[in-house]
Design a protein that fits this description.
The chain is α/β, with parallel strands linked by helices. The chain contains 15 helices and 17 strands. The structure holds 6-O-phosphono-beta-D-glucopyranose.
């Protein structure tokens, strides 16, 4: 609420994206008066808004739209008070019965909250004047079964088109640009297939450790925390077929179709086609940092992975035999999220002196911290001889468009208010992604074949990950 949600609402207000008739109601166990809550939210904006501290008179006007209802998540009377407050907002702030619930809570209480909303008359079926939507943060379940149970609970109250499962990666500008690059240009799509593409690498590397989230992360690990959602969503955007139109469901239909074509990793292949790691102490940007097992709320003999790599195959005409290598980890050498499409080698070599290496063409979609697209190709080095060297053509969003991308949360909350679900994950895709990672989770949970810690903070990850690619005569791109 403090770090992301309220600053996002404030920035949407500054940009005039927030409708004039709005109300924000905080609901949690802490006892606050409206005034105290507003003051707390102002502090949050001062600290976390990308537009700097809140300024009057705009803030005092904004603050009039903020109120607070204390209550616990199992107290139906408190939810009735919440309903009364929302009805007051309809009368006094002109919110017209439109409701967007944002569950910024531990996942363990999602089902209970949805049930309470229904019991207190806040569910969509009781709303006769406006719309009711719900935003649910990841993780949506902790495995396939729990995700299905959660879906059963939520869908008892909310129809699918009113459920907005937020995956903040989808709100990042360069991620939205994947579809533009593919489908707003004519030159990429004809070569976007197994005839021209050798392999795809998707990386989401971080330099941060688990920070203060050891408690959560201990029961999660990198595969659940990043691969099952963010990275699988990137894979779907890169590999899907062109949608028939740009509406939310046409796009989400294609994403689902390609996720369904991902071949489940056979149990016997899990150890060959995956790698996992846990960071040891090391140094990041010249500063010593502790190992994962020394982090707060982490067991000293923890077996939780902070690095996960998976090789996937997609069983369809476009991608047969093209490996997709996915990896994500904490405390790696650099923060770097990117998708690299590596093209096949040229069929016949004409140029280049004997010592020249002719690199394969690579198209890199850079997601963060750099945002852009770069294409590596071979060119003649000026001079009398036919020396060939790899060069790169780069596009950078910041300099290309002269703007700084808005944070993903702002875009996504704005979309949910407008009722545009394109950048939210539909249940069928969540389920397909769980189906893909389950054999790996099961195998990893029941084996101690990798002894942790196995990579130093600040490195490229565990050696087993390099071995996984070496077995295919390939290498990871440097992080
Ligand atoms: C979150 C994960 O979903 O994404 C975190 O729970 C991770 O563990 C974060 O650090 C990464 O997001 P970003 O935008 O910094 O790449």
């Amino acid at each position: 609420m403090k770090r992301m949600l309220l600053p996002a609402m404030w920035n949407l207000r500054l940009e005039d994206i927030l409708p004039a008739d709005f109300g924000i109601v905080g609901f949690s166990r802490s006892e606050f008066s409206d005034e105290d809550f507003r003051a707390d939210m102002r502090k949050a904006v001062d600290e976390f808004s990308r537009n700097g501290p809140a300024k009057d008179p705009l803030w005092s006007d904004f603050a009039k739209h903020i109120s607070y209802v204390p209550g616990s998540f199992n107290d139906v009377a408190a939810f009735h008070k919440l309903r009364e407050q929302l009805e007051r907002n309809d009368r006094e702030l002109g919110t017209g019965g439109n409701r967007l619930f944002y569950l910024s809570t531990p996942p363990s209480v999602f089902s209970q909250i949805v049930d309470m909303l229904e019991q207190s008359g806040l569910g969509p079926s009781a709303n006769k004047t406006g719309w009711t939507r719900i935003i649910i943060e990841k993780p949506f379940g902790t495995d396939l079964d729990s995700a299905r149970r959660l879906q059963a609970d939520v869908s008892k109250v909310f129809p699918e088109r009113q459920i907005y499962r937020i995956d903040h990666y989808l709100g990042k500008e360069p991620v939205q640009d994947i579809m533009a690059l593919r489908f707003a240009n004519v030159i990429f799509e004809p070569i976007w297939n197994r005839r021209y593409i050798d392999s795809v690498q998707i990386t989401a590397a971080e330099t941060v450790g688990v920070e203060s989230r050891g408690g959560y992360y201990e029961s999660s690990g990198a595969l659940r925390d990043m691969i099952q959602n963010h990275v699988m969503n990137l894979l779907a955007l890169v590999a899907m077929e062109p949608p028939v139109s740009s509406d939310a469901d046409s796009i989400r239909d294609e994403k689902y179709k390609v996720l369904r074509a991902v071949r489940p990793i056979e149990r016997a292949r899990v150890l060959l086609d995956t790698a996992r790691g846990q960071y040891d102490a090391g140094s990041i940007a010249g500063k010593p940092v502790p190992g994962y097992r020394e982090e707060p709320n982490v067991r000293p003999d923890s077996n939780t992975e902070t690095y996960a790599a998976v090789k996937l195959s997609i069983d369809n005409w476009r991608w047969a035999d093209v490996p997709f290598y996915l990896r994500s980890g904490k405390r790696l050498a650099r923060k770097n999220s990117e998708i690299a499409i590596r093209f096949r080698s040229i069929p016949h070599r004409l140029f280049g002196e004997a010592g020249d290496a002719l690199d394969n063409n690579v198209l890199v979609m850079k997601i963060q911290p750099e945002e852009g697209v770069s294409l590596r190709f071979n060119a003649k080095v000026p001079g009398p001889k036919m020396h060939i060297r790899s060069v790169s053509m780069d596009f950078n969003y910041g300099t290309g468009f002269g703007v700084v991308s808005a944070p993903a949360y702002e875009r996504l909350i704005g979309d949910a208010m407008r009722g545009d679900a394109t950048l939210f994950t539909r249940w069928d895709a969540v389920e397909a992604a769980w189906e893909t990672v389950m054999p790996v989770l099961d195998r990893w949970q029941n084996s101690t074949d990798e002894s942790f810690p196995n990579y130093s903070a600040g490195s490229q990850g565990p050696p087993s990950s390099d071995r996984m690619l070496a077995a295919d005569n390939r290498e990871w791109r440097k992080i």
